[in-house]
Amino acid sequence: xxxxxxxxxxxxxxxxxxxxxxxxxxxxxxxxxxxxxxxxxxxxxxxxxxxxxxxxxxxxxxxxxxxxxxxxxxxxxxxxxxxxxxxxxxxxxxxxxxxxxxxxxxxxxxxxxxxxxxxxxxxxxxxxxxxxxxxxxxxxxxxxxxxxxxxxxxxxxxxxxxxxxxxxxxxxxxxxxxxxxxxxxxxxxxxxxxxxxxxxxxxxxxxxxxxxxxxxxxxxxxxxxxxxxxxxxxxxxxxxxxxxxxxxxxxxxxxx
Length: 256
Hints:
This protein is of the alpha/beta class and 256 residues long. It has helices spanning 194-199, 204-219, 223-233, 238-248, and strands at 3-4, 9-10, 15-16, 21-22, 27-28, 33-34, 39-40, 45-46, 50-52, 57-58, 63-66, 79-82, 87-88, 93-95, 103-106, 111-112, 117-118, 123-124, 129-130, 135-136, 141-142, 147-148, 153-154, 159-160, 165-166, 171-172, 180-183, 188-192. Strands 1-4-7-10-13-16-19-22-25-27-28 form an 11-stranded mixed sheet.
């Protein structure tokens, strides 16, 4: 049974599962689907096109599936998909998709801190921590288990790899490859995220392999040659292949 405050508004066409708590002054629009065991504190807005899973917490002022801040958007029918067990803190804004990709996606078990923004058509993985007031432009991709600190500005179309740590206050317009620390001004490679990798269960041998892979790639004057050398040194190592494939597929180039 859902607990819906008499001071909340739920559109009669909204679809809702069971055991949800909808606090006062929340607004849930039409063409929305909400799963089970979600908690919406006061003053949360769920706009049209939201598709929300189970066990999420939405704190006051969160605004989900907002109209994209993209002048090319012409009210096409798009969605914003939120997975399970996310903590979405105060005043977080997440836009729905545009005709480009049709949807914005946030995975599972993420912590999205106060006042951060996810623009249209972004794809956020699972297990990520994204700090206060960080802003993602449109069509940004964030892989699983990334940690992005507060007040980070990420240009549209950037790709952020798994297990990265991005220092607070960074701004960048190139891709951040996996397993590294990115920081300083301008944003650049600052070594391997050793502490984060150990906390996630990576053994010392794999951490050293990752470290040597980046030494090999960055030390080579031509990145393509560095990738070839790294693959030859560590054939079949999935972490090395992930790094090499990420860099090869980068459309904006990687930070150096």
